[in-house]
Amino acid sequence: MVKIIALLVALCAIAHADDGLDDGPPTLLGIRLAAGRLPVLHEDMSTFSLGLGLDHPIARRWHAFGEYEYVWLDRGDATMQHGTAHRALAGLRHTVVQKLEHHMRSYIDVDAGGGMSIVNDSVLGTRSLPTGFAGLRAGFDFFADDSPSRIFETELVVRAVFVPDGSGVMAGLGMQWGN
Amino acid sequence: MSCVLSGVRHIALLLIALTATVHADPDEHEDEDAYFASFPTASFAVGMNGHGGRVGGKPEGGLGGVLEIDYGRGRWQYLAEGSLETSNVQTTMTTHVAGIRKRGALGMRWLARQFIPFEPMGVELYLRGAAGLESYQWVDDKMTRPDLDLGLGVAVRMFRRPRITARFDLDMVFAAGDTGIAAGMVLGW
Fold it and tell me: How many domains does chain B have?
């Protein structure tokens, strides 16, 4: 728990360190709400997650990103059984299609990566799950040169999530700000 | 209770570390912070709040109102908030117990990002943390426990009169081994 919060603190510190107002490529700091399904010990669970992420351009059309998600797990049958998970992921994102307009960009990206999930379940106990993912993002970037955050991005994310017990899916809505 | 107090100590230390990190070089950050539209010195907010989680391992949730008083300084806002909500605990798969939940908390909010597409309006991202005390009163029982919440907020703020902020908050709430979620929609002045 403390380690996860320390990770959040580190993310905040990095985000703050990037507040310099140079003209370099902006690091995006953002949030995401998502829902999906995930198999844990062959039990198919519903998930709802709140995520915080950092995204940095590394080349033309390529971004590297890191994410932390707090995940609520639910069996969906109104039992007293429940669980939560911490999920830390890193990955790469590539812009496949984009259209630039005045003060706006629309895009479709593909992303993939991996990381670790630590699940704490009232029935299954604590388990560490190596996690991989691949998916699609689509959304809009809005630009304002005179704003503290020069970019505001909205996104729709759909992903396949791979864990040792099988594969799941997640879909979410996110917003990112780039200084 | 001891694990909660241990958690409180750990998180308090981490919050202090975070504050120290971002204030480590005030001269360096002064100009950057000045570029942001600061929080108003004094403000308040009212709205609706909902929460869901576990009490003693049993599903619990409710809805109600929240009132918040804020003191702003640059990109930091210090807050005191109180809420009064319903509380429904699911005792078995088919029965539940009704009650109320009162909560008070002290915390702070950091203006992490601010996008101003056109004056005088901005779309903002906040990160926030608060420590509080929640008190439950049900028909057949009552309970008081400390909690900690960590979360974020997304707001649309007008920088000129009437200086209204419409904010959506979403928090993870940690209390005595139970983790829940709280969400609120508030209007601030």
Answer: 1
Residue whose C-alpha is closest to residue A67's, from A47, A77, A53? A53
Cα Rg of chain B (Å, integer): 18
Report the alpha-carbon distance of residue A179 to residue A151 in Å, rounded. 7
Handedness of CA B53, B54, B59, B62 (dihedral sign): negative
**Ordered structural domains, chain A, with CATH:** 2-178 (2.40.160.20)
C-alpha B57, offset from chain centre: 23
Q: What is the C-alpha to C-alpha distance for residues A134 and A39, in angstroms, rounded to an integer?
A: 16
Determine whether the interchain pair A177/B172 forms a contact, defined as Cβ–Cβ distance below 8 Å.
Answer: no
Alpha-carbon span A60 to A62, nearest angstrom: 6
Q: Are B22 and A16 within 8 A, CB to CB?
A: yes
Mutate to test the interface with B, among A120, A149, A173 (most CBs of B within 10 A): A149
Q: Is 0.85 exceeded by the ipTM?
A: no
* Whether A161 contacts A148, CB under 8 Å: no
What CATH number is associated with residue B119? 2.40.160.20
Could you report the per-residue pLDDT of B62-118, keeping only the tens digit for each?
A: 999 999 999 999 999 999 999 999 999 988 777 889 999 999 999 999 999 999 998
Quote the minimal CA–CA distance from B100 to chain A in Å.
Answer: 21
